[in-house]
Amino acid sequence: MGLCYGKPSTTPEASNPTSTAPKKKEEEEEGTVEKREEEEDNKEAAAAAVAVAVAVAEVEKSTTKPWASPFFPFYSPSPAHSLFSKKSPSAASAGGGSAAATPRRLFKLPFPPPSPAKHIRAALARRHGSVKPNEAAIAEEGGREGAVAGLDKSFGFAKGFEGKYEVGEEVGRGHFGYTCSARFKKGERKGEQVAVKVIPKAKMTTAIAIEDVRREVKILRSLTGHSNLVQFYDAYEDNDNVYIIMEFCEGGELLDRILSRGGKYSEDDAKAVMVQILNVVAFCHLQGVVHRDLKPENFLFTSKDENSQLKAIDFGLSDFVKPDEKLNDIVGSAYYVAPEVLHRCYGTEADVWSIGVIAYILLCGSRPFWARTESGIFRAVLKADPNFTEPPWPSLSIEGKDFVKRLLIKDPRRRMTAAQALSHPWIRNFNDVKVPLDVLIFRLIKAYLRSSSLRKAALRALSKTLTVDELFYLKGQFALLEPNKDGCITLENIKMALTKNATDAMKESRVQELLISLSALQYRRMNFDEFCAAALSVHQLEALDRWEQHARCAYELFEKDGNRAIVIDELASELGLSPSVPVHAVLHDWIRHTDGKLSFLGFVKLLHGVSSRSFAKPR
Ligand SMILES: Nc1ncnc2c1ncn2[C@@H]1O[C@H](COP(=O)(O)OP(=O)(O)OP(=O)(O)O)[C@@H](O)[C@H]1O
Ligand SMILES: [Ca+2]
Ligand SMILES: [Ca+2]
Ligand SMILES: [Ca+2]
Questions:
Q1: Which of this chain's residues are annotated to bind ATP (predicted)?
Q2: Which residues are placed with Cβ below 5 angstroms of ligand 4, an ion?
Q3: Claim to verify: residue 389 and residue 512 sit in the same structural domain
Q4: Which pLDDT band, with edges at 50, 70 and 90, does 569 fall under?
């Protein structure tokens, strides 16, 4: 448990859920994965990027062997998308009615494996003490329709929708419902146009589907005030439907604009789109919300105008996620789904991958990962490197290519965050890009504060090798924390910065939690130099071509200024080696025989610290 990232990304097969899938047919597709098929580039195909529904629930590996887990075909269309939720018990109790309280997730399997329900219930009982009867029934029956009778479809939303709004024509349709234009019938806003997403209750056939609607509204309601996010107004319900009232976006879907342009954008036009997408996604991530369904259909323009503002919509698959938490249900749309989602261990980075897919499509008009079947697409996502050699790529800027490549890095720890992407040289000087606060820095500072003095010295040395480009981002983040006159930040500055940026989504719990995790800062201050050491990501630097140079250079600095004879126990605890491991044998390579100090290899290991071994918290 908890070693989601323990497997090197070079051997995805090891944990690849598709690896046991029937392969015969796909073998022939191997070659076609690389080929772009323009004929497929139409809306139909895009719509076929159906919600991922892989009905495999994993129980704690230590207690139950995961049963054979072939990738079942996607439901198409279907609201069923998620799995048995593996949130931690503490999250469940702290979160109250939030996503943490999502019912146990397991659904209809097209080919049910030998009933896993027993194991799941046993695991749940162990984790939560007991399982509510109707939830257990869902698990046991695999979502049999009979369970519908017991579902509570009241949401506590306002009544009287029809008295308040005059419904106009349908403007869009999805798997779960349809969207209409509407107008206020009376009152101050009489005549004003809004959009109404109508979700029929008849379509909510599982507890999960109901919970998803609840969460969609909850997230929309709490995430207010960003200019690239559709403005939520209200939610209503009656016996038949749920109605989500929001700002009306007249300009249509981003997908339609891409298609009407024949798929290709100039770099500047692509930047204009990317800045808006990254801005709203960075905002969501700071608030602790992961969208999980980013694709060109889910961005709307406010007007038909060429330069119209873009708005993110459809939080139907979104969820709350804390900085160190990992989600495990496989949701999203095939073309846009991140590799770590397929590995069922992911966080906000998964959204950034989807943005990388959108960026790739904008710049070259083709999909980076393509195959005829869903499992073929997954194989490509997990293994194939997108093509950057065919036209138009050779004629695009080096920065543009680097930008897309760094969004499509398979290892989520190495991938840029949304805020970092806004600091990337390709985009950072475009118009008036403002880089928002990045939730990643808090995660990194937390790990830094918990490190030994030896590791801190190693990070300090590494931070001295950062280039102007890398410092650009850190300077921006430091400035956002509004250092005091002495050039230092304290816990108070962080608190202020978070409070300033917080919506209800974050207010619910996260600010407090973040601050508690940084409490080691309480009696001290941090200047910019130390901030750089604390907030740099070793994993991300490792993804750079010049990493070796960075590391060598840092080691030399460390030699002069921090290397000392190693106390084995200190190192062992820093690296999270269990007492049963014969420490001396393991550390042999990391220590120089001549003087007992850290070797280069040991230095690099130390830079990673425990974080590389237990990045995700065991739950
Ligand atoms: N605020 C809005 N203004 C105008 N049109 C909208 C608005 N919200 C949604 N639409 C239209 O309705 C379509 C469906 O909305 P949405 O994606 O929220 O529904 P869904 O049922 O969750 O769809 P999906 O099948 O993608 O999950 C959108 O693609 C868009 O065309
Ligand atoms: Ca749609
Ligand atoms: Ca949608
Ligand atoms: Ca949706």
A1: 197
A2: 314, 316
A3: no
A4: confident
Instruction: Please measure the distance between the N-terminal and C-terminal CA atoms of the chain and give it in whole angstroms.
Output: 7
Q: Whose CA is nearest to atom 4 of ligand 1?
A: 249
Domain hosting 331: range is 252-423
Sheet holding 241-247, edge to edge: 165-173, 178-184, 193-200, 241-247, 232-237
Catalytic residues: 293
Query: Are residues 316 and 356 part of one domain?
Result: yes
430: in domain: no
Ligand whose nearest atom lies closest to the CA of 44: 2
Say what the pLDDT of residue 590 is.
82
d(CA 438, CA 536): 12
Does the predicted interface ipTM exceed a cut of 0.85? yes
CA of 232 to the centre of ligand 1 (A): 13
Residues 321, 190 share a domain: no
Residue among 434, 433, 512 at smallest CA distance from 480? 434
**Which of 19-23, 71-75, 117-121, 472-476 comes out lowest in average pLDDT?**
71-75
Residue stretches of the annotated binding site for ATP: 197
Query: 193 pLDDT exceeds 90?
Result: yes
Q: Is residue 603 part of a domain?
A: yes
3-class secondary structure per residue, 45-95: HHHCCCECCCCCCCCCCCCCCCCCCCCCCCCCCCCCCCCCCCCCHHHHHHC
Listed in sequence order, the residues at least 6 apart from 27 whose beta carbon sits closer than 8 Å to its beta carbon are none
pLDDT tens per residue across span 456-487: 999 999 999 999 989 999 999 999 999 999 99
Mean pLDDT, the chain, rounded, equals 78
Residue located nearest, by CA, to atom 11 of ligand 1: 172
State in Å: Cα 272 to ligand 2 middle.
23
The helix-helix angle for 207-222 and 133-141 (nearest 10°) equals: 120
**Residue 571 and residue 487 share a domain:** yes
- Which residue matches tokens 């993804």? 543
Question: Same domain for 444 and 485?
Answer: yes
Residues 274, 418 within the same domain? yes
Tell the residue nearest (CA) to atom 26 of ligand 1. 174
Ligand 1 atom nearest residue 250's Cα:
4
